[in-house]
Specification:
Elements (H helix, E strand, L loop, with lengths): L2 E4 L5 E5 L1 H7 L2 E10 L4 E7 L10 E2 L2 E4 L6 H13 L7 E12 L2 E13 L11 E8 H10 L6 H17 L2
Parallel strand pairs: 3-8
Antiparallel strand pairs: 1-2, 1-3, 3-6, 4-5, 4-9, 7-8
Length: 172
């Protein structure tokens, strides 16, 4: 599937493969989801041991690239259903941010849109992508991330930080 290519202002400039974007340093879009339950716990997933990036590490509720025919929201809804078996969660935009991460010898350049929502229903993971899941309070998660950052996907650690800053701004 082709993904959307964007410029440094997140304007669409075309589409193509993830591999080409990585090879050529093209910026792509990614949708990320944080679902909380009514107790305020965040649903996180553990990536499968066969996942190509950050295998066996804890990550956000769901995430994925925005395909060529999608919006950020459409991608978030699709990924939530594919990875966690969740349908019908109402999502709202929480933060948009740019990241560059090193993966081996390449730089992954992304615009990230974080969506949040509240969900108390059933979770049915796709065991090809996800090996486990759990609900955790943000305070406990931050403690775990500080003590053992290697257990978490790098992008997830950054996203938690961005989320907290967005919450602070929204509450002032």
């Amino acid at each position: 599937m082709n993904v959307i290519y964007v410029d440094e202002k997140d304007r669409e400039i075309g589409s193509g493969s993830i591999a080409d974007a990585l090879e050529k340093g093209i910026i792509v879009r990614i949708a990320r989801v944080f679902l909380f339950n009514s107790n305020g716990e965040l649903l996180i997933q553990k990536r499968s041991d066969t996942h190509k990036s950050f295998p066996g590490r804890w990550d956000q509720t769901a995430a994925g690239h925005v395909d060529a025919d999608e919006t950020y929201l459409n991608a978030a809804i699709r990924e939530l259903e594919e990875e966690m078996g969740i349908r019908g969660a109402l999502l709202k935009e929480a933060a948009k941010f740019y990241t560059e991460e090193r993966d081996k010898r390449k730089t992954i350049r992304r615009f990230n849109m974080l969506f949040t929502g509240v969900y108390d229903g059933e979770v049915r993971i796709d065991t090809h992508e996800v090996s486990d899941f759990r609900w955790v309070m943000l305070s406990e998660l931050k403690k775990e991330m500080k003590e053992s950052p290697q257990r978490f996907a790098e992008g997830f650690i950054k996203t938690v930080s961005v989320y907290e800053k967005a919450q602070e701004i929204g509450n002032t």
